[in-house]
Amino acid sequence: MGSLGLKPIDTKTEIEPKIGVTNGQKNSTVVEIEPEQEQEQEPASPATRLFHTKSLNCYILAILGCTTKINRDVIKKGLESTLLNHPRFTSIPVVEEKKGVRKWMKTRVNVEDHMVCPDLDPNMDSPDEFLENYTSSLTTIPLDMTKPLWEVHILNVKTSEADAVGILKLHHSIGDGMSIISLILACTRKASDPEALPTIPTSTKKEKTKAGFLRQFCYYVWYLCMVFWYTAVDAVLFLATILFLKDTETPMKGGAGVGHNPRRLVHRTISLDDMKIVKNALNLTINDVVMGITQAGFSRYLNRRYGNKNGRGSSKTNNLPKNIRLRGSIVFNIRPSAGIKALAEMMEKKTKAKWGNKIGYVLTQFPISLPDNPLDYIRQAKTIIDRKKLSLESRFSFAAAKLTQDIFGSRVAGKLTSRVLAHTTVLLSNMVGPQEEITFFGHKLAYAAPTIYGLPHALTMHFQSYYNKMTISMSVDPQVIPDPYQLFDDLQDSLHMFKEALTK
Fold first, then answer.
1. b/e string for 189-204 if b means 16 or more Cβ within 10 A?
2. What is the mean pLDDT of the chain?
3. How far, in Å, CA of 360 to CA of 346, rounded?
4. Residues with catalytic annotation?
5. How far apart are the C-alpha atoms of 197 and 156, rounded to whole Å?
6. Torsion 7-11-16-22 (CA) sign
7. Among 206-210, 304-308, 343-347, whose mean pLDDT is lowest?
């Protein structure tokens, strides 16, 4: 920073009134911008400003398991030729002292300052437990706001799933989950072809059947009416959630301040091929299967927790209270992704590509019950998803946050968004990964487990597909969910339950 002639105010203590405090925000450096430095500045987007408020100060953690030991020097060289060509990875968030405007400011980056490679005992006891404790401890350590907001941890320790583990930790203001995963994939290549980028499956559009003009006209009128109606209903429920509508206080629901509690980060890998069997047999999408598994797993888990609470303990009897309201905040990237090819070219040739945070979220109901036919879970999930596809709720939530921010400022918009999320139970996302095995700077990947923490949920879940695997990542508050592996068992058993129901 000194090479740019900046004069940052001391950030070692938060009691000074000028230490990154603008509109109540304390996680930025306040600087006095010189005229010759204006070309080094880029205004922060509305979402970036939101993620730097106290209410939504959250981080992304991407855990990459490798099938070989990680060569630190190779990773360093790879980062220097890729991520350092990306403006967000070479900039720091600052607030201009005179105008109070938040911006990204270019700075010099030493990759060594962003790499953490602890010296570990390769023959340690319980390496899986060590990995879980290590990643969980990262949630208690904030990033240094005087440097670009990312760091890479290299753990050369053999676990049950990988021979070594790499961890990318970064602040959510750098980009949304889809952008970050796409950027990581842009740094990878096919294991079978070191020069080729990985292949990401895309959704196939159904062929339109030829129909008469009147029939097509009636269809589009009906379609627009449904979109208008469902969007209006979801908008009303969204506003009701801001004001008073809360989820039932189940054993999975976090209380006040849950977003600031220490987190436990865990993951489990299940068979993507098994999910495809259910998908193909019922003519569904992977998203439908994911939602069905989640609904069934939550129902089984809560039934056990309520049974233990009431002293019955048996998971075979129905211990669930009636009329449980359990909703998930499902995140959507409402701007088309730039694609890994465009991001690879951006880092290689320093061209421009779409980037940033432009995300909305949808409040989705998870009916909690124990039906006689397990496939009813998937049928219910598909009905809910198909109905949500006819709604513009994700765009409405994005527009509402932006409008609030424009009128009342980032602090109020952050509190309002946090209030909506806190009135639901879980944050859920599902991201599509490569269809083939890939390498990250020459290191073959065994799995990828991205997650997020800092939001007002006791549970966040991320589904990430890769090759023939689906990795489920959880960030949990251990005070609310002390047994996350039991929840994993219930999710995995739900998938097996669907397969068995299909054979019958």
1. bbbeeeeebbebeeee
2. 84
3. 26
4. 172
5. 26
6. positive
7. 206-210
